[in-house]
Amino acid sequence: MNRLKSLAQQEKQSSPALYYVVLIHLLLAIICMVGLVVDDRTLMGINVWIKPLKFCISGGIYIFTVGYLTTLYPYSNTKRKIINNVVAWTLLLEILIIFFQGARGVQSHYNQSSAFDGIMFAMMGLLIAINVLIMVLFLFDAIRLKMKVSRPVQWGIIIGWAVVIAGSWVGGQMIGQMAHAVGVVDGGEGLPLLNWSTTAGDLRVAHFFGLHGIQIIPLFAWLLTPKNGQFKTSHLGGTVIFGLLYASWIGYTFYQASQALPFLKL
């Protein structure tokens, strides 16, 4: 907990825009949880506040991660500030749209039922596209620059960004078919909270694990590397092997969903 508080203070000083956007995500998540208790409206079989809640939590974790990782790049203050502000404001607008549509009780994604809903969805696509380009920049710079971490952790970050971009590509596949389910229409039986289909394929599984690769793989590398920074070749090899296995897991869950098979059949 103390380590987390220290990271939060570090992020507040180095990336104030991202820090406060994370706080807004937390506030919105609390409102969503209150909505789950007092609002009985449902959309596609689940409470209207579940989807905004999931995005508030996931988005907050991602933004916090970006705020920390940018301190590890040898960027100038100007470049870091520009990147942080672009990420902060685009993802803040993204979550506000999802929250607003959830509060209205309508779909935020794939919603073309009116001109307004279509514009909202198109804006979300544009905002995410901007962030995918920034992910590519992070990956490119992690490859070409010496980061302020050990080599295993830097390789964990490189593989993590590659996996995130793959996860974003899966998101593009969902937009292409204007649905996340394969083999059934969206809105059927699903896992609690996650709502991943338990009767057919669901591309959100690969999308979810892909987007969180940037936390899991570097964290594994960090835990593997001695605190004194004196790493061995085995630490680097272990990081690469874990990263490849994680990437293979993304490929497996994508293949499973594309074959209309549920991640977990209940």
Give the SSE layout.
Blueprint: H1 2-14, H2 16-38, E1 42-43, E2 46-47, H3 50-69, H4 77-104, H5 115-144, H6 151-177, E3 181-182, E4 201-202, H7 204-211, H8 213-224, H9 233-258
Structure description:
The protein is 70% helix and 3% strand. It is built from nine helices and four strands, in the order ααββααααββααα. α6 runs parallel beside α9 (233-258). It is globular and about 55 Å long. The chain has two domains: 1-148, no CATH class; 149-265, no CATH class. Keywords: Membrane, Transmembrane, Transmembrane helix. The chain crosses the membrane at residues 20-38, 50-70, 82-100, 120-140, 152-170, 205-224, 236-255.
What's a quick, concise take on this entry?
The protein has a two-stranded antiparallel sheet with strand order 1-2. The protein has a two-stranded antiparallel ribbon with strand order 3-4. Helices cover 70% and strands 3% of the residues.
Features:
2 domains, 4 strands, single chain, 266 residues, mainly alpha
